[in-house]
Design brief:
Blueprint: E1 2-5, H1 10-21, E2 26-30, H2 33-42, E3 49-51, E4 74-77, H3 82-96, E5 99-102, H4 107-113, H5 117-123, E6 126-128, H6 135-146, E7 155-163, H7 171-183, E8 186-189, E9 192-195, E10 202-207, E11 210-217, H8 221-224, E12 233-240, H9 245-259, H10 262-274, E13 287-294, E14 300-305, H11 307-324, E15 330-331, H12 334-337, H13 340-348, E16 353-356
Helix pairs in contact: 1-11, 3-5, 6-13, 7-9, 7-10
This protein binds NADP nicotinamide-adenine-dinucleotide phosphate.
Length: 357
């Protein structure tokens, strides 16, 4: 049985639809009986639902009345920010030997997840962070470039460019962003993790024939990629107009410092009022391109639309793989939990193009 936590959130609802379309056995979990019942009634499978809070996640691991269907139990966590809400669910999954995956891209939280690796190996739980549109894709693309080779590799840069994100980003994503900038002062350089301010570096980047300025930002590849690829450094970059790169770099550094103070909490709270849910009709205008630049290799560029719909499909795909079983255990990067080449091939069916050179 796949238990979908945070099912009534903006992304959780889409993951429920994707699980339903995939014909997987699933149940919904969240805080509000009213919203869970309403969501269940709208889904063709009319899934069962249960109440659980991130601070008291035991119900997520309750037995299925009448017996569970065949396959490994899996908890899919969509209740964020994970920095604040993720650990109790993760801890219980690791303790009980239940597979866990989430859709987070909160770097410091993914780094913290490493402390559950040993326990999960003992109990047989697979813990897979970041099964979402950014990191699962870049992580698996890197794995297809490296193909399990053990020879030391050079620097890895991942450049993200977004078109029309205004007004389309969910409240949950914005809140997670604030928590990430407050906590994730981390990079991977010289073969080890080191402290680094968000926005600490700028560079130029050529993507789709256009010259951008790029600003470093915290992204979970910093933890996931070194787990399976012997790279020397990992850095994610946000592509912006060249004029704005240096001002944005200074702004990110200053804002990140501010976000660590009580003022940061007030800002996060005010977001609930300010951020309306993303309008459905605009979501397909939200395009992204990400360029994987591994030193000494031709760059790989990935293009797609509607990251939220894609995230939902990726989470359901990964849940299906974990549910089907195999002896995976411990903390696993998406590229370790999935078959990277098969996953990259599957992305083609989701409207995502992957092009080398
Ligand atoms: N990496 C990516 O590409 C990607 C893409 C999409 C989303 N995400 C992440 O996924 C998370 C959810 O995003 P969203 O767009 O769905 O935001 P959202 O609409 O605000 O949903 C947040 C979810 O968390 C639940 N929640 C909050 N506090 C809780 C608590 N104490 N106990 C149980 N559940 C709690 C909410 O429950 P209620 O429904 O009861 O309020 C809701 O289901 C965010 O962290 C976001 O960054 C990542």
């Amino acid at each position: 049985m796949i238990t979908l936590f945070g099912a009534t959130g903006f992304t959780g609802r889409r993951v429920a639809q994707a699980l339903d379309r995939a014909g997987l056995p699933y149940r919904l979990a969240g805080r509000s009986a009213e919203r869970l019942a309403a969501l269940s009634a709208r889904l063709p499978a009319r899934p069962a639902w249960l109440i659980a809070d991130a601070h008291d996640p035991a119900p997520l691991f309750s037995p299925v009345p009448g017996g569970a269907p065949a396959g490994r139990p899996v908890v899919v966590n969509c209740a964020g920010p994970f920095t604040d809400l993720g650990e109790p669910v993760l801890r219980l999954a690791a303790m009980r030997g239940v597979h866990y995956l989430d859709i987070n891209n909160e770097l410091a939280y993914v780094y913290r997840m490493r402390s559950y690796d040993a326990l999960a190996r003992q109990t047989g739980a697979a813990l897979v962070p970041a099964c979402a549109f950014e990191v699962a894709i870049s992580d698996c693309v890197v794995a297809t470039l490296v193909r399990g080779g053990a020879a030391p590799l050079g620097a890895l840069d991942i450049v993200y460019a977004y078109a029309n994100p205004e007004g389309v980003i969910s409240y949950g994503t914005r809140l997670s962003g604030l928590r990430t900038y407050a906590t994730s002062w981390l990079t991977y350089r010289g073969g080890r993790w080191q402290g680094q301010w968000p926005g600490a570096a700028t560079r130029r980047a050529r993507l789709d024939g256009r010259l951008y300025g790029a600003v470093s930002f915290p992204s979970a590849e910093v933890v996931t990629v070194p787990a399976h690829a012997p790279v020397q450094s990992v850095q994610a970059w946000l592509a912006v107009d060249p004029f704005w790169a240096r001002p944005l770099s200074a702004l990110l550094a200053g804002a990140s410092l501010l976000l660590r103070t009580p003022l940061g909490w007030l800002t996060a709270l005010s977001f609930r009022r300010l951020a309306p849910p993303p309008p459905e009709h605009q979501r397909t205008a939200f395009r992204f391109a990400l360029q994987v630049e591994l030193e000494g290799r031709a760059p790989v560029i990935v293009r797609g639309v509607d990251p939220y719909a894609l995230t939902a499909e990726i989470a359901a795909y990964a849940a299906g793989r974990l549910h089907a079983g195999g002896d995976q255990r411990g903390l696993l990067a998406p590229a370790q939990a999935l078959d990277p080449a098969a996953f990259v091939g599957w992305l083609g069916g989701q409207g995502v193009t992957v092009q080398t050179g």
